[in-house]
Amino acid sequence: SQTIHQWPATLVQPVGSPLSLECTVEGTSNPNLYWYRQAAGRGLQLLFYSVGIGQISSEVPQNLSASRPQDRQFILSSKKLLLSDSGFYLCAWATGMGEQYFGPGTRLTVT
Amino acid sequence: GNSVTQMEGPVTLSEEAFLTINCTYTATGYPSLFWYVQYPGEGLQLLLKATKADDKGSNKGFEATYRKETTSFHLEKGSVQVSDSAVYFCALTFPGGGNKLTFGTGTQLKVEL
Predict the structure, then answer these.
(1) Contacts of B99 in chain A (CB under 8 A)
(2) Nearest-angstrom CA–CA distance, B48 and B22
(3) Strand partners of residue B24
(4) Residue B82 in 3-state DSSP?
(5) How far apart are CA A26 and CA A6, in angstroms?
(6) Would an 8 Å CB–CB cutoff place B6 in contact with chain A?
(7) At residue A17, what are phi and psi to the nearest 5 degrees?
């Protein structure tokens, strides 16, 4: 069966520091991968998605970036965090039929 | 563009009450429709889905029917439990390409004893 992992689970970082969040998927090949952000009490905002290694589509211009160095690895990064980057970050993968499966999330607090 | 509209929350019910959370969508064509559930502090879990008109998705006592004529996919449960307290998201996608999901804003459900 397929599983999706995210780490770290929680993170507290000062403004201006770099960020690296990692997501890996097991049990499937060449999945579509997604990064979402969920602000407190709000809905989901799609940040990036990838249909293959090295292929990244950005949905929202911001100081975040994403990379897909391996088939089942998706990384979200920032060179300098802003206060507004605080939130709950979710990674997901999609089947060919469009349904997405989500990881447990990373709660990021920028102080 | 595509959009999903959900009823505003929070919805507060007593245990064993009947639940309806309304969801309507706007899309060109016939998307696949989903309900996701998010428990506090966790990621989203796929609750149920329907891929064509008149399909009924069901899981864990929850049901939703894909109504093309009213562009709706309302979530129902006959008897809610305290453990059903969570945020529920309605979503749509067109399979193929990037398979991007369009989400509603979510509806918080609180079930009390």
Answers:
(1) 32, 94, 96, 98, 100
(2) 15
(3) B5, B72
(4) helix
(5) 12
(6) no
(7) -85, 160
pLDDT in tens, chain B (113 residues): 889 999 888 999 999 999 999 999 999 888 999 999 999 989 999 999 999 999 999 999 999 999 999 999 999 999 999 999 999 999 999 876 678 899 999 999 999 99
Q: What is the mean pLDDT of residues A41-57?
A: 90
Encoding tokens for residue B10? 């929070």
CB within 8 Å: B42 and A104: yes
Element (H, E) at A78: strand A73-78
Q: Where are the alpha helices (DSSP H) in chain A?
A: none
Cα-based torsion angle of the residue sequence A26, B34, B26, B101 in order, rounded to the nearest 10 degrees: -10
